[in-house]
Description:
5-stranded mixed β-barrel, 4-stranded mixed beta sheet, alpha/beta, single chain, Spore Coat Polysaccharide Biosynthesis Protein SpsA, Chain A
Amino acid sequence: MNYIIxxxxxxxxxxxxxxxxxxxxxxxxxxxxxxxxxxxxxxxSGLVGLDKVYVATNSLHGKKIGQCLNKFAIPRENILLExxxxxxxxxxxxxxxxxxxxxxxxxxxxxPCDHFVADKGRFIKKLKRGLKLTDNGYILTLGxxxxxxxxxxxxxxxxxxxxxxxxxxxxVEKPDIKTARRYLKDKRYYWNAGIFIFRADAFLDxxxxxxxxxxxxxxxxxNENGMRRYWKGLPNxxxxxxxxxxxxxxxxxxxDYGWIDLGSWQAIEEIAKKDRSGNxxxxxxxxLGSRNILSWSDDRLVATVGLKDIIIVDTKDALLVCAKDxxxxxxxxxxxxxxxxxxxxx
Length: 346
């Protein structure tokens, strides 16, 4: 059978001050009038039964995620509440083991919940193709042709080509702008979407060899007592670093269905409606003569005059004013907030 694991455990600090610890971006209405977790679940409707959908999130958000998933009739036992955030390897490994324990032929799709999908039909078609390719034992990752020199994404370099996919040559960290420009010209490089497709047994076999300690720990987590006892021993590491960069089974499946990773305020530009001057004005905003600005207000009137390439986000207790080309650094700003006396604003 086919299964989907949705990763909904991040905070989305690059969307501060709208995104907070208790209201992370998966619960925000960034793409439409619906929270992003709802958008994600609607995008996969019809691909698998709802009883085959699993969701991993932080235990802090258990109540909120439960309310969202009730609308989709996803079983409560399919929700993994992580005691502490451990990046992506830990929840993927544990849920894969849980699924495999009752279905030895399981095929699994890993999806972050913070992606925008423009063409649902092509999205579903590509996932189905990926599921088919797992018959060859591959651990697949989806890659997208770069449209600009992007320093906020990781990259995948394609190796030997097959019919409609490639073996992975290597995974590449988020580059500087000079390197990103070079990748844009080199057709072998793809954006890493963080979407994975594999047979449960193939993934667990690789985990056992590459990360045997993780394999042993997840084997001991069978209930809530096991979670409390063993979860803290799992490493804080992504599936990319832990498995994908080391496995010989990695394959790249190129995809093009209007994918956007909603990782920072800059990403809103790709989906939001703009005025004639390229401005995006959300909420109570009034502008005179500005160009290419994003102005977002929860409540108060935000008035702007003659600005260019600026992001402004106003909430009840915090205001962000940021140059567009520095949007990725909002995450660093949140780290500074944590170091200072700003608990209410985090």
